[in-house]
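[Meeting: bench + compute handoff]

Bench side (C.D.) handed over the final construct sequence. Compute side (W.E.) agreed to return the predicted structure before the next meeting so the bench team could plan truncations. Sequence as handed over:
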Amino acid sequence: MSKTTPKSVLITGCSSGFGFLAAIQFAEAGYLTFATLRDLNSSGAKELTDRNLPNLHVLELDVTNQKSIDSALTEVKKHTDSLSVLINNAGFGYIGPVLDFSIEEIQTQFDTNVYGVLRVTKAFLPLLKKSKGTIINLSSINGRVSFPLYGVYSASKFAIETLTESMRFELAAEVVTAVLVEPGHFRTDFGKKRKLADEMGQHTPHGKMITNMLNRWSSVKDHLFARITSSLQDPQRVSDLFLKIAEYPNPRLRYLIGVDAWVFYLTRKVLPYPIWNRLLRAGYNLASKNHK
């Protein structure tokens, strides 16, 4: 294979979900595609390899490990000397009251969702500069609107929001474009992979909130979403958006996607905090208190 290619993409977190779908879609669209994941023995890695797409390379890359990133960069350079698109998709979410988390747990959240993005971007930036490429950072509606029990995860996504906004301005002179994709809820394994604080539920004031939230989420997911928005929760929509952004000559900074994402964003934007707080308390089925 030639060492240069008109279009190439590296995607992190390809074992499942958006990353898995995007790896296949970009490869089928003709991109030299580097699908990266932490474990080459995972079922996702095996399925990607079994696709036998000639321009799809499955590589090991742990965003929390600089040596792993450097090894992946060396492998990529064997195939191309530039990179058209970098999709920072890898991440996970902690759930639980902020102060129930240990400092080490919070550091783990940021190590993947924030520092991981920075490590990978810094490593592959020279290749992106050569092609005047695009960086797509996966954020979340939680990066625009914070919810109780998602504070630590939201904080990591709020960080990605501001870092990407700064990078977009700072990299403009080198014609590298930074973009945010902000999904709501989609049918992926993200919910199954979310982690709980080690101390979650041990503190009495939080127990009812946690139970109510999990019960309410299960009810909404199984009934309302399933009946009304099932087709709109297809994760392929996010993968399609990744590809569209990659093809846009001048993509905008933010792309909010998902019915719930738009509802939460617009509601929070319009309502003053006291009213928003009452809605949250109703949603979490908590008795009204004078929280302003």
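W.E. noted at the follow-up: The CA atoms of residues 64 and 112 lie 6 Å apart. C.D. will use this when planning the next construct.
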